[in-house]
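User: Write out your own:

AI:
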Amino acid sequence: MKSITAASGDPAVARLLGRHPFVELVDGGPATGVEFSQGIWERAVFVGRSDEEQRGILEIMDNNPLVCADSMSVPSAGATLAMIALGPLASGGLIADSPTIAVTVPTEEAEIDALMEPLGWFEGSYVHFEPQPLDSVVAATVMVAIKTPEELDDIDALYEERYGRTFFVRRDEDSEWNSSLVAGQPYALYRLLVAPDDGTSLLTIRVIADRDGKAGAAQVVHAMNVMAGFEESLGI
C-alpha cells in the first residue's frame, strides 16, 4: 500500500515520483516542486521561494524541523550551485567579502542572499549570468575572499563535514571537468582551488549538476523524502 499521494506538473519530478515505492502519483500539481498528502496532511516542496521559513539545500540545513513542516523550498538551479559552494564557508564564518558567482543559468542575487542570511552572511553577493551550451547541465564558478585559517586543511574539513557522508554532493579533484560527469546523474560535483595569503585568501569553487538531478527534480524528491520520513534516496 502506498504511503502518500503526490503530484507535480514538472515532468522530471513526476517521472521520479512514478517509480517511488511509497508514492501514488496523481494528476495535477505545481509546475515546479511537488505537493503531497500524508492522510489529511497537505504538504509541499517549493522551488526558489525565499519567503519559506524552511529553505535551502538539505546538506546545509537542519533537517529535523522538516519532519514537522507543512512546506519548504529548495533553491533554483543556479542558487543550488551557489549554496553548495558557499554554504560550508558561511556556516563556518570564513567569508570575508561578498562572493562573485558566475552561473550558466539566470539566477537572482536576492534568492542567494536570502539563503545565506540564516547561515550568518548578510553582506550579499554578485551574480553574473554566463550562458554556455551544456545541454541539461548547469555550472557555476564562485570566487570568494575568505579569512585564512590556521591550517589550509581546515577548508577541506568544512566541506567534508557537510558533504563527506552525503550521496547528492560529491567532491571531484581529478577528472577532466566537463558536463558528462553529471549529465543524467542525481548528484552535484564540486572542486576547490585556494590561493593562500596572510589574513585573507582567495577560494575558487567550481560546481556542476544536472537540471533534473541535484539542480532540479532529484533535489525536490530528496526533500520530500526527508519531510515524509523516507530513506533519502528512494525514487532517485
Q: What stands out?
A: The chain has two domains: 4-72+215-228, 77-210. The longest strand covers residues 137-147. The chain is about 25% helix and 25% strand. The CA atoms of residues 127 and 168 lie 24 Å apart.
